[in-house]
User: Fold this.
Amino acid sequence: MDYFLSEEQLMIRDIARQIAEEKIIPQRAKFDEKEEFPSEIMEVIAQADLFRLFIPEEYEGLGKGSLDLTVAIEELSRACLGVATSYAAVALGTYPILLYGSEEQKRRYLPDIASGKRLVAFALTEPTAGSDAGGIQTTARLEGDEYVLNGTKQWITNAGVADIYTVIALTDKSKGARGASAFIVEKGTKGFSFGKKERKMGIRASITSELIFEDCRIPKENIIGREGMGFIVAMKTLDNSRVGVGAQGVGVAQGAFEEAMKFARQRRQFGQPITSFQAIQHMLADMATQIEAARALVYSVARYIDSGARDISKESAMAKLFATDVAMRVTVDAVQIMGGSGYMREYPVEKMMRDAKILQIYEGTNQIQRNVIAQALIKEASRGR
Assistant:
């Protein structure tokens, strides 16, 4: 379908697709097998100015919107979800600064992020705080001109390879979630270290590790916004980033569909290509329809965000929920169509199926997304909307 992308958006898509085809696809199996962070690919992405997409022009970015970023994420995800996650996580970690950072913080950090010189990570999840984001235990205590951080963050994407971390910590434990604040912590700060590197089912090119804070002292001007705004910063960040997770779902589903279609046209059984069998035809038809529906929703929500809409929680949750559920169904079906071959590492769909599962889990499980959507619907109904 024609989604009426602008010439610039089409150019972004073509650049991301070229990187995917020429740089990522030839190496994706290696990244997966070795669980290797794609440093060289990140440099290529930086040279192509894709990190500048989500940075305003006044901070050396291109000042593009959510749809532009969505298009780039989709194309990278079509080739390798691990690489795409490493890229998208930089935007995720940058949103707190973009949305609530001071002018001084923006001028200090955004130009280096735009150039790709410094990668970013977002740190909310903890061993006791997953779906219950309000259950965080990491603390930040003000002592003179410094905050002292103590605690552990778990399953943080880009941990160790990122230079800048946006961290949610409690400045007033008595207030629960309302006592949380957001901070910028730089790699190399004394008292800030990294725990074990996780070994994952999928997205193995993406690094996931613990962050450990032990009397980690940061300047008080590193607070984002003001004390008590941390939970708002976190939720608004996720509202803006979840459409990107939806784009990841569309991308990996598209990649799996293309592999299944190519295989089905070549694979012969009972003297004919398996595309001649109605069972396979119906699976392919369902896969293509689901992908197109997911893409339409994701693009529509991205445009809605770009329109300046303030309350985007429900729509972002819908885009994430639907597109990632589609990704799981399509990748499973791709493996099924390819049969024993699909189950083998020689073909990429087994990796795509393993990769796709995380999309239903991170940045809020799809069960949490249903909660968000239902609560918004009930609130709208109570207002008579």
